[in-house]
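Can you give me the bound-state structure? Components:
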Amino acid sequence: QSALTQPPSASGSPGQSVTISCTGTSSDVGGYNYVSWYQQYPGKAPKLMIYEVYKRPSGVPDRFSGSKSGNTASLTVSGLQAEDEADYYCSSYTGSNNFRYVFGTGTKVTVL
Amino acid sequence: EVQLVQSGAEVKKPGESLKISCKGSEYSFTSYWIGWVRQMPGKGLEWMGIIYPGDSDTTYSPSFQGQVTISVDKSISTAYLQWSSLKASDTAMYYCARPATRYCSGGSCYPNWYFDLWGRGTLVTVSS
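Here's the bound-state model for the whole set.
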């Protein structure tokens, strides 16, 4: 099972929007509405930002939104703030080879 | 406070054994699965495996099957990740993480497919 594919980096100025893609296959992203997104600061544990494609846990700003089309999921951060600078990982349930979870390769978001 | 408390950093030599822990606090430990995630230095997250404390049902990622052992002691609300013979390539941060529970039925609970609670991580360094 290969990791889901994300762009290594993305950037935007404060107030702008940035969108991160997460590409998988029909066995994971495309086959189930179980895509989640995590934010990770250096030296810190990941934090859940989006689950089941578009749902936000309590406390996550509504500047963060998720969507999916076919085998590609996306995370959009609107109204970028300095504190959004972090690594972001997507994840999906996968039904292949008794795998259950697969993570993306990660995207470093830089606020210019 | 609901949390996962992981054991402290470890420095080991190649060939040594190691068992790190993850203690669940302030929640019903046997109602939630516990997963382990590896993050090698400067790299991404990798799912290693998951265990259900209720009956020790365990699933491993094929990448880690046979390389590590995941276990649990539900009497002390603690999950473990262990190695019998460490390699330098095992140097990494290891996180335990709890997926939300999707539902419980017939005495067993089934996980959701996202981790909503994470431990702070245990750094394992393997060096001669």
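A couple of observations. Chain A is about 0% helix and 45% strand. The radius of gyration of chain A is 13 Å.
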